[in-house]
Amino acid sequence: MLITGFFGVIALLSWALFLFALFAFVDAAIHREDAYRAADKKSKPFWLVVLGLAAVVMKFVSILSFLPIIGLVAVIVYMVDVRPAVRQVTGRGTGGNRTAFRRRNRGSSSDGPYGPYNGRR
Question: For the region Disordered, what residue ranges are annotated (predicted)?
Fold first, then answer.
């Protein structure tokens, strides 16, 4: 019974890693080719091949092997390093930051378009 539970957890973890790699693959496919060059990262076909292989390995190779770990490292590198850089180049990743910046630097209610309004002084 303990072995069955262990392999059930391994199967769920395998599916979760596969879905994570699939999400990264779809995200890499959505972005434009020139965004990768502008962000000074590897090319879009490179990341599509790496993430596609990672997804296939995570789906069809046992998670107890070392190949899914290599695939997981590749997916993490894409998600942590490449994806934010590409999103910043395309302008998709800065919406929340701009809103927070506006809230912090809002000024008073008497501010005009060119600074504070001090009356006719």
Answer: 89-121
